[in-house]
Amino acid sequence: MYPILKIGAIQIPLFQALTVLGLLAFTITTILILEKKEKTQRKTVNRILLVCAFSFPILVGSAFVANSLFHSIAEKKLVLGGITWLGGVLVTFPILLLLIHFFCPRIKGNALFYFNLLIPALALGHAFGRIGCFFGGCCYGGITDSVLGVRFPPHSPAAHQQVNEGLIVHGDWSLPVYPTQLFEAGFELLLFIGMMLAYKKLRGHFLETYCFAYGVFRFCIEFLRGDSRGSVGFFLSPSQLMSIILIVYGVLLILYHKRIIFKKLHDKMDVYQKESKLYGAHLAHDVKSVVKKLRALKEDGALTEEEYEKAKTELEKRLDSPPQNQQ
Predict the structure, then answer these.
(1) What's this model's pTM, rounded to 2 decimal places?
(2) What whole-number distance in Å separates Cα of residue 122 and Cα of residue 140?
(3) pLDDT(324) > 50
(4) Which of 58, 102, 134, 244 is deepest in the core (most CB within 10 A)?
(5) Helices 42-75 and 14-31, packing angle to 10 deg
(6) How far is residue 122's CA from residue 27's CA, in Å, rounded to a whole number?
(7) CB neighbours of 325 closer than 8 A, spacing ≥ 6?
C-alpha cells in the first residue's frame, strides 16, 4: 500500500487520484458507447452525463448513510463515517433511472435501455476505484498464509486493526491479508471486457448482468474480507445482505422485460417510445443522413437549390424542437 505518490516536491494521494481516474474512465467510456456505438445525439449524451453528475453526490451520500447505519448497529451507538459501494448503488440506481426518464425527453420511454448502456462504464470506473482502495489501505481481506497475502505498512487500517486485536506489535507491518481490493478490481475489469465483447447480445441487458454477476461475486468475496463493515443484526454481513437485494433487482428486471410484473408500466413506456420516435436520441444522425441524400439529389438535378434549402431547414428545425407532448 502506497497512499501517497511522491514526485519530487509533489505529493499525490493515490486513493483520490484513482477515484478521479475512475470518473474519467466512466465519462469517456459512456461517451464512446453512446456516440460511437449507438449514434446517440450529442444533446442527449450531454443530458445523460449531466444527470450522472447530479447523481454522483446521491451515490456518495447514500453510501455514507448506509455505512454509518451498519456501524451504528454494530456499536449500538451513533457512528458516522466511511462509505459502502452497494449502499450507494441500491439507492442511486432507481433514482438515476427516473432522472434519465424525466430530464432526457428525447429518450423518454427508453430510459431503462440507455441506463443499461451506462453499466459497462460503471464497472470500469469502479475497477479504478477499487485499485484506489488498495493504495489507500481500506477494504482489505482477512489474514492468510497463502502466496496471495499482502502486508500493509504501519499505521494502515489493516495494521491498526491487528494492533488493536493484539496480533502484532505497534509499529510493525500488518500480517499478510488477502488483497480483496485487487480481486474486486480484476473482477470488475473482466466484467467490463465481457460486456463489451458480448455487446450486441447484452446491450439491452447489461443491468441484469451486473446485478447478478456483481451481486454473486460480492456475496462470495465477503467471506475473505477482514475489515470492519458494521452489522445488520444477524448472521449476514451488510454487503452480503445488500448483494442479495441487488440480485433481487436483477430478478425484477427480468420479470419486467417478460411483462410478468409491472405490465401497465411496460405498456406506458411503449406509448412514450412511439410518441417520441421522431425526436429520438438518433435524430441528429438520421437528419444528417437525409441531408446527405438531399444534397446528392440536388447535385444530380433532381432538386432545385431552393427545394434543397427548404427541406434542409425543415429537417434541422426538428433537431431543436422537443416532442409536441413534452413542451
Answers:
(1) 0.83
(2) 22
(3) no
(4) 134
(5) 140
(6) 9
(7) 275
pLDDT at 97 over 90: yes
> Residue 270: how many CB atoms within 10 A of its CB?
11
Question: What's the pLDDT tens digit per position in 25-49?
Answer: 999 999 999 999 988 888 899 999 9
State yes or no: pLDDT of 77 exceeds 70: yes
Q: How confident is the model at residue 315 (pLDDT cuts 50, 70, 90)?
A: low
Among 101, 102, 89, 97, smallest CA distance to 116 is for 97
Mean pLDDT of the 240-257 span:
96
| Cβ partners under 8 Å of residue 151, min gap 6 | 173, 174, 175, 176, 177
- Over its C-alpha atoms, the chain yields an Rg (Å, rounded) of 24
- Torsion sign (Cα): 133, 136, 139, 144: positive
177, 152 in Cβ contact below 8 A? yes
Calculate mean pLDDT across residues 156-168.
Answer: 91
